[in-house]
TrEMBL record:
Signal peptide: none annotated. The gene is LOC101400859. The chain crosses the membrane at residues 25-50, 62-82, 102-120, 141-162, 205-226, 238-260, 272-292. This is Olfactory receptor. Pfam families: 7tm_4 (PF13853). Belongs to the G-protein coupled receptor 1 family. The keyword Cell membrane applies. Keywords: Cell membrane, G-protein coupled receptor, Membrane, Olfaction, Receptor, Sensory transduction, Transducer, Transmembrane, Transmembrane helix. CDD domains: 7tmA_OR1A-like. Gene3D superfamilies: Rhodopsin 7-helix transmembrane proteins (1.20.1070.10). It comes from Ceratotherium simum simum (Southern white rhinoceros). It is a multi-pass membrane protein. Residues 41-290 form the G-protein coupled receptors family 1 profile domain.
């Protein structure tokens, strides 16, 4: 763990969610079940969209990408955590810790951008239906998705490079179940002011910009819906946005409470609960949220099941 004349941390100790053996086995079973449901549910959504030509539209193109990102997002964290619980090995190499942090941040930001792209799609479909086909063309939708992936990875790369420049020469215990930005910053014996500034400003920008786009889109959508004369018509128009709004509320409600604040207010216990919600529970629930009240997805799933028989 110590290298050369100057002490330097080469590995970290992930404490996880609990040290109680009984609770660990319960958590192992719970997280394994949630992870398998997440992978299976999101994979089925992707397969259903790819297998039904009626779903080859911008909204479902974004949804299939969101499902893929949700699988990747949880896969970065949960399998490693399950291995640590099963083997009772809590150590993680410095390089592996940075890699996990990199992909966690990248997929989290990609999720945020994709949710904004879906809000823009709903805005165009409801507020500008005559221009929808030309504005949300396959080429532009593909560019939106590529931009989401590229920008999120560039943002994450900046975080990783700055984190790699810090010195870790003191405690190496991370009070978390994976390597995240804030817990790592609290362990550094270097000046973390640049990292803090990046996390609070540029980090806030990549989280808040998509969020503001979503809010503005839904303000215009609400205005358009209220102009519909009949109550039934208003419900029919707005029902297409219900699933997306639920996912947005779950995702942003938890992620903003963790990241858009100074690290001086960091609380390990509080963050554990909130982090589990947006890293494990929300990705697991997304397939159910998008399919339970969506007739198109239900029909595509039935079609997929008939093919599998």
């Amino acid at each position: 763990m110590l290298r050369g004349n100057k002490s330097h941390v080469t590995e970290f100790l992930l404490l996880g969610l609990t040290s109680d053996p009984k609770q660990q086995m319960w958590l192992f079973a719970s997280f394994l079940a949630m992870y398998l449901i997440n992978v299976a549910g999101n994979s089925v959504i992707i397969a259903a969209i790819l297998g039904d030509a009626r779903l080859h539209t911008p909204m479902y193109f974004f949804l299939s990408n969101l499902s893929l990102v949700d699988i990747c997002f949880t896969t970065v964290i949960v399998p490693q955590m399950l291995v640590n619980v099963l083997t009772q090995t809590k150590t993680i190499l410095f390089a592996h810790c940075l890699t996990q942090m990199y992909f966690f941040v990248a997929f989290g930001i990609t999720d945020s951008f994709l949710l904004a792209a879906m809000a823009i799609d709903r805005y165009m479909a409801i507020c500008n239906p005559l221009r929808y086909t030309t504005t949300m063309s396959p080429r532009r939708c593909l560019l939106l998705v590529i931009a989401s992936w590229v920008l999120s990875h560039l943002h994450s790369l900046t975080h990783m490079i700055l984190m790699a420049c810090l010195s870790f020469c003191g405690p190496n215990v991370i009070h978390h179940f994976f390597c995240d930005v804030q817990p790592l910053l609290t362990l550094s014996c270097s000046d973390t002011s640049v990292n803090e500034l990046l996390a609070f400003t540029e980090g806030s920008f990549v989280i808040m910009t998509p969020f503001i786009l979503i809010i503005v889109s839904y303000v215009y959508i609400t205005r358009a819906v209220l102009r519909v004369p009949s109550g039934g018509g208003r419900y029919k128009v707005f029902s297409t946005c219900g699933s997306h709004l639920t996912v947005v509320a779950l995702f942003y409600g938890t992620i903003m409470s963790v990241y858009i604040r100074p690290s001086s207010t960091y609380s390990a216990t509080k963050n554990h609960v909130v982090t589990v919600i947006y890293t494990v529970i929300t990705p697991m629930l997304n397939p159910f949220i998008y399919s339970l009240r969506n007739k198109d997805i239900k029909l595509a799933l039935k079609k997929l099941m008939r093919k599998a028989e």
